[in-house]
Amino acid sequence: MIRKLGLALAVFALVSTESWSQARRSEQNHAERFEQLGTMLRSPNVYRTASGAPGHMYWQQQANYVIDVELNDDNQSISGRETVTYINNSPDVLTYLWVQLEENQRGPESDAPKVAESSINSRMTMRTLEGILWENEEFGYKVLNVKDSEGNALPVAVNKTMMRIDLPEPLKSGESFSFSVDWSFNITDRMSYISGRPGYEFFPEDGNYLYTMAEWFPRMAVYSDFEGWQNKQFFGRGEFALVFGDYEVRITVPADHMVGATGVLQNPEEVLSATELERWNKAKKTYDNPVIIRTQAEAEKLEKGKSKDKKTWIFKAENVRDFAWTSSRKFIWDAMAVKQGGKDVMAMSYYAKEGNPLWEQYSTRVVAHTIKSYSAKTFDYPYPTAISVEGSNGMEYPMICFNYGRPDKDGTYSEAVKYGMISVIIHEVGHNFFPMIVNSDERQWTWMDEGLNTFMQFMAEQEWDRNYPSRRGPAHKIVPYMRSEKQYLEPIMTNSENIIQFGPNAYAKPATALNILRETVMGRELFDFAFKEYARRWMFKHPTPEDLFRTLEDASAVDLDWFWRGWFYGTEPVDIAIQDVKWFKLDNRTPAENKAAEKAEFEREETYISKEFNKADVPQTVLEADPATRDFYNSYDRFAITPEDEEEYKRFMASLSPKEKELMNSDLNFYELTFENVGGLVMPLIIEFQYADGTSEIERIPAEIWKLNETEVTKVFAKEKEVVQFVLDPMRETADIDESSNYWPRQYQPSRFELFKGRGGARGASTGDNPMKRAQSKRK
Ligand SMILES: [Zn+2]
């Protein structure tokens, strides 16, 4: 409309002094960043719909286990027998089954140590060298007998961490097959070079062991509509793809051990003392504080003896994808009830005295908080228990997880230990939701559970403590990774085993991306509904990345293909710059005012012309010498106003509607901002306008502004107030890797560099990281 009125715009431009490459611009102008993902996604079908939900013929396999296992505390080994009933719900006929043997990853046939790169340094730890030598003859499955339900041996082929059982007859759709496996292996020291998730920790001071048993029995591999058998070898990093089923597990351990496990303890009367049973029953009705069922004093007493008797603990678990357990005579045990979805969940912790005072104060409370926080954003926690075990570790299993966080021997601890412990408990308990219940394929995609869980963990942390350390710049923390050199960057959509920068790529970047989706791209309301819908749709099922991508769009009406493309399939960073700002004001002057302004401008220009120089150089021009060369234009007043000018102006003003007149008389500032996409990853523009009067305002422009030109866009903002400073992404939401270009006028801040004398380090003495210890020593 402004252009139709035929008004000139007077320009008061703040001209950029920066230059940029025209060639690079045209090259990147259209890199299809807004094209639909199309064939990059798996085709929808009757099992998985185009909207990201399970299809009308969705199926998944089931495996039920009955297991008897005995722990030998004298030589740190276990042996067991399991009966597996495998139910073929697929439409396919199966002629063999694949079973996972993760324990063999630590055995002599393992490829894991062979493919691990190694090098010699002038200074090396013993553990690193032991890792290079990797003596593993005694590990891996020692006994492995597979039999059918009649007790006849079944033909098997063991290929390192995978075992194929050849079926006597093809297993048709809807049929089930039962087989048993006898097995045994030596438990590894997870504190040694072998490390790994399961194993034991030895406490030399009291001569006791603490066992965290995981990946401890042959488990059914997943057979699915999207991948067939998931029988990729286990190299130690790409975790697990597992089948849901019901478990009954009988665990025989020394009589003075305390056992915690996936599922519900079936025989507390047999394995607990009368006092413990009484406290356990009290805990089941206590909602405000954890009840200690085995105290530190009781555990310390048990540490000193070694019972030769045995006890068998019986656990049952329904609809779980795995089963893990822990056992030690060192364990303190506490528990409390949490109301969740109309039923009670028992939040519990098992820890040795080495974990106190931290564990007694925090662990079970954090478990309870995590269940509530995650449930509110997904679905009601469906399992009867949730357990946190102190095991110098951080690893998750259904209903039980192994965590770290020990104070110093004097009972003090640093802030890092405290928050590290709370974070790892939130994280590992949170894994109950992803991937224990929303059961993605971890061996293929680490990010599908770690990324989603890290994102949820961040929100649970903010709900725990307003000053939680992670509150600062959740998006900005990914910047160092996004800035790293191209050869170290891979898309989030990279297989678990092939990831170079594992933590940033599979945890932090997807978590950051989801946080940006929620806070910046979709908004909380749309995101939370869609995310919950994904969790609800895929609860107790096997989702793929496509199911997540499609559901978040399906439930929100936000086209996110560009976002998945940039953040999940690409490696480009966010780096958007304010390239230029031009300032315009509407020309609403009268003809007289206009001419006066023109005259002033003309005269200003004249001052730049060195008349003295011209005079000296050209004593007399032709025109000055010869009147015959002059005409009208050599003497007319170019700044005089004609009656026509006046008339036209009057006519124009009379033609204006009241609304148009109002606009004409307004004193709006028009700011034409040019943004350059330096990094490549397109993102919304979040612009803060800081005004001359000290106030400010933020405008948000969706990422689609880049859809016609992915390299440079220009946009006009009309403001009544005068802007003194433009800031792009003022709240650091987008992980922009170069913030110096986010200001107009540019702002520069000095970086400090340290000066010190001699060979010493920091100028000031080290402040240490345990203020609690310093406070205590002051008191003494
Ligand atoms: Zn995790």
UniProtKB/TrEMBL annotation:
Identify the SUPFAM superfamilies for this entry.
Metalloproteases ('zincins'), catalytic domain
Q: Where is the Peptidase M1 membrane alanine aminopeptidase domain?
A: 412-567
Query: Which segments carry the region annotation Disordered?
Result: 757-780
Family matches, as PANTHER family = PROTEASE M1 ZINC METALLOPROTEASE (PTHR11533), PUROMYCIN-SENSITIVE AMINOPEPTIDASE-RELATED (PTHR11533:SF174)
Stated name of the protein: M1 family metallopeptidase
Lineage runs: Bacteria, Pseudomonadati, Bacteroidota, Cytophagia, Cytophagales
